[in-house]
Amino acid sequence: MELKKSFLVLSVSCILTSLLLLGLVFLICNSISSTFPAGEIEILSDGSIVRQETPSASQRNILSVLGIIQIVSCIILPMGGLALSGVLYYHIKLKQPITALQNGITSIQNHSLDFSMPICSDDELGRLCAAFDTMREELLKSNQELWRQAEERKRLNAAFSHDLRNPITVLKGTVKLLRQGTSDEKTIDRLESYTLRIEQYVEAMSSIQRLEQMPIQISRCTYSLLRSELEDTGKLLAGALNLSVSTPDNGTMQLDHGLFLNVAENLIGNAVRFAKSKITICLEQQENYLLLSVTDDGPGYPAELVQNGPKPFGKMKEDSAHFGMGLYSSQTLCRKHGGTLTLANRKECGAAATASFRINSEILSDF
After folding, report:
1. Both 87 and 186 in a single domain?
2. pTM for this one?
C-alpha cells in the first residue's frame, strides 16, 4: 500500500480494535456489577413496596473500582489504539527503508560504494530506496570513470616521459659530436629531424587524453631511409656493442614514420640495457605487414613478461628500472598501426622482440 493508505488502514483498524476492547470492558464491568445487590426499592403490582438488599461496603468499593475502570478505559483504549497504530506504522512501513537509507548514507560518507540498496516495498519509500540505489550506481560509474581517466593520464604521462628518453639520448649524442668537431651535414640533419620529431610528439601527446587516441599519420617511406635511421639510432644508443642491421635493399611503403621510430627506439634501447655484446636488428615484409625484430644476447625476458605480455607499470623483479612503460607503449602503438608486439626468448641469442605494422602491399615497389 501507499503510505497514506497504509496509515489510514492501520489507524482505523487500531481505533476499531480499541473500541471493541472498550465495549468488552464495559460488558465485563456491567456483568460483574450485576451480581452485586443494588439496594434499590421495588414496587410490586399489588402496590406493595419491597426494599432490596443493600450492597456491603466491600461491594460498594468494587463497584466504584469498576466505574473508574470504565472511565479510564474510555481514555486509555482510544489513545492506546492511536499509539499502537503509530508504532505499527513505523515498524511496518518506515523502519526498514529508513535503516537502509541511513546505512547507505554512512557507506557513502565512508567512501564506499560497493553495496546494494535493498528495495523493501513498492511504496514511496521503496521507490526512494530504488532512486537512491540508482544514484549510487551512477556515482560508482562516475568514480570508476574518474579513476580510469586518472590511471590513463598516469599511463599517458609515463609513456610520454619514457618515449622522450631515446630521442633525447640521440640528441645528446649528436650534440657531443658537434662539440668534438667530428660532425658533418648528416649530423646536422639528424639534429634537425629529431628536434622536429620531439616537437610533433609533444604536440600530439598534449592534445590526446588516452594513449590509444594517438593519431596515425601515414607517409611514404623507403627502406633505405629506415635502414639509415635504424643504424644511426642503434649506434648512438648501443655505444660499443656490436650492432647488425638488415633490411631490404629497395622498396617503398606507407606507414607512420614517427610511430615506427618510437617503437624501434624503445626496442633498441631496451635491448641495449641487457645485451652482453651483440644486438641484431632485422626489418622485413611479410604479406601486408612490416616486421621489425630486435634481438640481443642478454639473459632474456622474464617468463612472466613473455607469458602475460607487457603491462603498464609492470616492472619485473629482475630489473625494477625497466620492462615497464616502454614495451607497453610499443605494444599499444603497434596495435594502433594494425599490428602487434611479440616477445620471446631464444636460446642462441637471448631476448627477441618483434613489432609488426600493417602496410598496403600494393604501394610497395622496387626502384
Report:
1. no
2. 0.54
